[in-house]
Amino acid sequence: MKWITRERPKIDRIACPWLIKRFIDPEGEIIYVPLNEVLIKAAELEAIPFDIPNVEYSHYEDQCSFDYFLKKHRLKDDALFRIAAIVRGADTDRFDFAPQAAGLSAIFLGLAQNIQNDHELLELGMKIYDGLYTWAKYLYQQKHTQEPVGQLWLELFNKFLEQKGSKKTPKWAKEIREMIQDQIDTNMTLSLQQVSEELEINPAYLSREFSKHFENLSFGDYIRKMRIEKAMTLMETTDYSLSEIAYLTGFSDQSHFNRIFKKQMSMKASDYKKNLTKK
């Protein structure tokens, strides 16, 4: 069968074709045309129009076209219902429908800006929705803090909350310093904002308390300091290039690494490495 909708898809017009090809009509052909041509081309090509006004497969009440496809084809799958809430929230700017809706909206708004070919965008979108379905089917209850490092953050900051009234340096400060030193590597991308969101703690409050126990540095500055110290260790103990060291210590590129290194060490990373070879 042929399915037709308006061009420049973003959310619902990517989600619906994914649903069609994965659960309704695996051999279905998806066609994108300008809005004023949808019904004309639908008649010419004997295609089923969707996600435009005044056709069967469209928004209804407070639901999206994706919801109608589920209802029409009697798809009873809890994972699809979870995706439907995310799609509905993203497509209508009602991010209260599902916490993932804002992220889905941001992803496809950005991709639609970067990719001008609708079918190229659909191909990429199919993979994204495949991943979302796997999450909705098997992983929706899994939290980031279930991972070892995330769980350690949770435990340490819970201790922080318990001791926040104390004037003494809390035990969590020593533990968190050791944890950062031990765990800092290519996957070390934790931010104070991420921690505050996961723990539902005001980020300004955490930022203020964190700096009291970490050399009067903000969370970000302290992490950068630890990355530079790790980079120095790598320069001393390995033959990695500076670009490799920048990557291994979590910097976006060598230029960023060089800039932060010089700011903290008052010398270029290349000069520091050269001095090591002279010893």
From TrEMBL:
<feature type="domain" description="HTH araC/xylS-type">
    <location>
        <begin position="174"/>
        <end position="275"/>
    </location>
</feature>
<dbReference type="InterPro" id="IPR018634">
    <property type="entry name" value="ChrB_C"/>
</dbReference>
<dbReference type="InterPro" id="IPR018060">
    <property type="entry name" value="HTH_AraC"/>
</dbReference>
<keyword id="KW-0804">Transcription</keyword>
<dbReference type="Pfam" id="PF12833">
    <property type="entry name" value="HTH_18"/>
</dbReference>
<keyword id="KW-0805">Transcription regulation</keyword>
<dbReference type="InterPro" id="IPR018062">
    <property type="entry name" value="HTH_AraC-typ_CS"/>
</dbReference>
<dbReference type="InterPro" id="IPR009057">
    <property type="entry name" value="Homeodomain-like_sf"/>
</dbReference>
<dbReference type="Pfam" id="PF09828">
    <property type="entry name" value="ChrB_C"/>
</dbReference>
<keyword id="KW-0238">DNA-binding</keyword>
<protein>
    <submittedName>
        <fullName>Chromate resistance protein ChrB domain-containing protein</fullName>
    </submittedName>
</protein>
